[in-house]
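I trust your eye. Have a critical look at both lines of this record:
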Amino acid sequence: MKKIALILLLFSSILIAQEKKSSKMGQTTLEELKMTIYDKDSTATAVVLYEHANRFPDRNNDEIPRTDYYYRIKILDKSAFDLADISINLYKKQRVKNISAITYNLTDIGTSNKTHLLDKDIFTLKEGENWIEKKFTLPNIKVGSVIEYKYSIISPYLSIKDWNFQSEIPKIKSELDISILGNYTYNNKISGYLKLDKDAPSIHKNCVYIDGIGDGDCAVFSYGMSNIPAFKEEDYMLSKKNYISKITFDIKSITSYRGVIDNLTTTWEQADKSLKKQFFNNQTSKKSFFKKNIPEEILTTENILERTKKIYQFIKNHYIWNDKYWTNEDAKVKQAFQEKIGDVGEINISLYNSLKAANLDADLVVLSTRNNGIPTKLFPVIYDYNYVIVKTVIDKQTYFLDATDKFLPFGQLPVRTLNGEARIINYKKKSSWIKLKPKYSSSVSTSVKLDLNEDSIFNGDLMIRKTGYSASKQRKVISLKSEEGYLEDFETKNQDIKVEDYKVKALNSLDKPIQEFFKVRFETSENLGSKIRINPFLFDQIKENPFKLKERNYPVDFAYTRRSNYYISLTIPENFKIVKLPENKAISLPNKGGRFVLSTVKEGNLIRLSVRLNILKTHYSVEEYYALKEFYKQIIISESGYIILEKK
């Protein structure tokens, strides 16, 4: 969701003496052109040599805030050519001016060659009613090029765009200068693990003269950071917005020239009212509509829990989710209900109204999804929230409901919602915070029983049992294909296995474990003369460590705990002897974070092998990263072991 405050700035005749600090074009050097590798990160495909933004009231545009942007970037690999594609998004009354761009290349004789962007190669695209996009691509891009460009945005809005010191590529230097009239105050927040090497707030006395009133002051902020490493994403993380080094500004208050203070950062009580009026678009009072459209037998179900479950199932079956999250004021539940398709807001606000229509307890709950970032609790920033679910209490038991996913059971929330605390909106009582957790535990249990015949072929049974999120994922995989197509994919993934029979149990009983039963034929592909080498880890073997970074400066977040149990028994003929088995192994994570146990037992011509892997926490700190990385390394080593048989 594109966010911008919709409050226009009103200026009188203001004269500002603040000197502009904007960067000028033409700063590229021969030394930068000769660079072939960035010495602080040899893997970098590009490096930002310098970037700068300067925001100030523009005297030439009626003192409306203007931000001058400047970027200079070295291209080190062709995979970074897309950095030459520039898009500038403009909202309503925002304007862009002074676009200038140059590509520098090194000539054969060691001089600099410039290629300028032409005005005809700047394009304007309209995106909906409110947005315009300016696009251009710097010309003559090659490996070794330095691209340099600048532009200015004139914006009559109070919002200040976040400044990201860190990005996917390293930066040598990044700076931000902001000059704000003294009658405007902002909540500014620096996030990320990197430290500023320039943080110089100051007051510019008498920077403003207002006709009929007198002199005023300006707040000046100067920030800078040098030698900034690239932010490298890895598995099992929340949104990088939480961890990337940046500075944000949220408008707090405006003081009029008569001294009247208008607080724009409201209390949560005021924010809750704004949510109802503006963000829910007054769609929370449509229970009469849903009372007419929900079958009478559902509304009159006597048992409260059963009535709630039936309404939840009715809404879930009625709608198709369009994969869009909560789009705030655009929600129109009546229209969405009639079209049987909607976004998260329309579907779950329909569920809320339906529960109210059935005289059931219900509250709306707003949250930010895992890919959207963790919202601040210090002060309300309602644009931080992009998702809404429903809370209901039945016989003192609390349930959180989301009707967008047809494969989740009653009370189980999608993984995308597990992002710290959510805000329960209660219009009669005080709203409150709640940490969302899964209702059902997630596990995978695999049991394999195989007999080896004289032709070195195993025949036997496979059973896979899944609960929680693992079960929901599996139900979706199975339901989206025919049985024949599903089994073809299964055999493609497990190339040595041929499925001879298949059954599934509890496919549509979402609150129960799903169980799959296979009759299988397994041909060993490693026949070494008189010996046979068998990989006993036929399913869910961990072959790659998800944790590869030399240093990870943000926590690991699994979203939910998980358990995996794998058991296999192999019966071998009397004319074979067992030469080697995988080594037993037991390892644990610190702070009771998890455990891995591999055990093998030989009983005559029967081999039993079991593996247990438990991830017992959802969150692992930066300090626990190396232990987690080593934990998975040892699992991979253990699961690379083989069973070796030899004919007698």
Observations:
- The CA atoms of residues 366 and 388 lie 4 Å apart.
- Residues 304-318 form the longest helix (15 residues).
- Residues 1-19 have pLDDT under 50 and may be disordered.
- The two ends are 69 Å apart (CA to CA).
